[in-house]
Design a protein that fits this description.
mainly alpha, 17 helices
Length: about 450
């Protein structure tokens, strides 16, 4: 009897898996925020996209060695548990449960509502955004709580839908001659600014990494590859490299249609309208709406399992309550309802504070602390368990892991500079997990 799966896939499948995991809904609404963080300098904004791709590639190459050496269900939680023990691993799940998933589900719900107003051609006021965002959030949770197949069907359709508007805007934007000033034009006002370009680059990098979020999961495909030593690094380099180039081209195409100042006022809908007319723009935004809906559905499906998983491992208080499975749908209903409540709380806070994008940037930046633990863990494993089977080893060791650690630490630092209060609150909430943690009963 075999104790592990045989490799089933080659490079092409691994490449598509990496691209499919990373390209998400963030690319649709981060362009203008990144321009703002970059001080309205398009050159700095584009460099932030390039740097984000480089950091993602070296981080993916580093984490993949850990993932290949610890091919267990649970991904990074399993890796951290192996290296640092169950208490630190619980903190990862705790942070996912109370910060990461609720915040990202909330922000996607918000932007689904925002894209819907663009599609319908109505004013994006809170009176309209609130019922739509809470309505779609509730609907998706109901689907995932009371059914066991519909969510998967939605996910497949949305994956296809998200590539259509992205491809159309990129191709037609690059062909556009609308911006006579040139896509890299920097206004005199921006040139006169005394702000440090390095600081602006770092601040712009924080929202960029939201769009690259998901790279951490590429290491989990190691067990599915026929030639892991050859295909895994190639899939990471070429897959994440493709995503980075695609993101750069998309943002360059937006700037090729409108200069930075006009892009800020018109947004992606204005670009779509300029390229395709009113009806064409609505078709594009229908694709974006479907993509947002699919992203929301995927996040919801994943979120409902977090309290359940922590409960069955015996480390979450009220573990019997959260581990309960509904007999009809075979879904963790109590876990799902709890996550729905937390997601609603985050959505309420977004509307109250008006800091919608912060609720996306901070959780992603916070998790770079855990990613850095994985990078450090690679060095620990190499020293502690030199004979551990490693189907794949990171190239240029120790240079690549060190660069990944520097990049990950920089993202966290810049996010803290940009939003110190929100980062401090997130760290406190994460730290509460150490108090909540319950030792597993024998």
């Amino acid at each position: 009897m075999k104790d592990k799966l045989e490799g089933r896939y080659g490079f092409s499948v691994a490449f598509s898996m990496v691209v499919g995991i990373v390209i998400g809904i963030g690319i649709f609404f981060k362009a203008t925020q990144i321009l703002t963080a970059a001080g309205m300098n398009p050159k700095i904004a584009i460099w932030a996209w390039i740097l984000g791709g480089i950091i993602s590639i070296i981080s993916g190459l580093t984490a993949a060695e850990v993932g290949a050496a610890i091919p267990e269900t649970g991904g990074m939680i399993a890796w951290i548990k192996k290296i640092y023990g169950p208490k630190i691993a619980f903190l990862v799940g705790w942070a996912q449960m109370v910060i990461y998933f609720p915040a990202l589900i909330g922000i996607i719900s918000y932007y689904f509502a925002f894209f819907t107003t663009n599609f319908l051609g109505i004013n994006a006021s809170n009176e309209v955004l609130i019922p739509i965002s809470f309505g779609v959030l509730t609907f998706v949770y109901i689907v995932n709580i009371f059914t066991n197949r519909v969510g998967g069907i939605i996910q497949t359709a949305a994956t296809i839908a998200k590539l259509i508007p992205l491809g159309l805007i990129t191709v037609f934007g690059l062909l556009s001659v609308n911006n006579t000033l040139g896509p890299m034009h920097v206004s005199q006002k921006v040139l006169a600014s005394t702000e440090s370009p390095l600081l602006l680059l770092g601040l712009a990098l924080v929202p960029v990494m939201f769009a690259f979020d998901g790279w951490i999961y590429v290491g989990t495909i190691a067990g599915d590859l026929k030639n892991v030593k050859k295909d895994l690094p190639r899939a990471i380099i070429f897959g994440l490299g493709f995503v980075a180039i695609f993101y750069v081209l998309l943002n360059y195409s937006l700037l090729n249609v409108f200069p930075a100042e006009k892009l800020m006022s018109e947004g992606m809908f204005g670009v779509a309208k300029e390229l395709f007319g009113s009806m064409g723009a609505r078709f594009v935004f229908l694709g974006i709406m479907i993509s947002a809906f699919g992203g929301l559905n995927g996040m919801t499906m994943a979120s409902t399992r977090i309290p359940y998983t922590l409960a069955i491992e015996g480390h979450l208080p009220k573990d019997r309550f959260f581990a309960k499975i509904d007999e009809k749908t075979m879904q963790p209903k109590n876990s799902s309802v709890f996550m729905y409540g937390l997601s609603c709380v985050c959505l309420v806070l977004m509307f109250i504070t008006g800091k919608v994008d912060v609720f996306g940037d901070i959780p992603v930046a916070l998790f770079w602390l855990f990613y850095c633990l994985i990078f450090i863990g690679l060095f620990i494993l190499r020293k502690r368990e030199p004979n551990l089977e490693r189907p794949y080893k990171v190239p240029l060791y120790p240079v690549i892991p060190i660069l990944a650690l520097v990049g990950g630490g920089s993202i966290f630092i810049y996010a803290t500079i940009a939003n110190p209060l929100y980062m401090a609150i997130s760290l406190v909430i994460t730290g509460i997990g150490l108090i909540v943690y319950k030792k597993k009963e024998d």
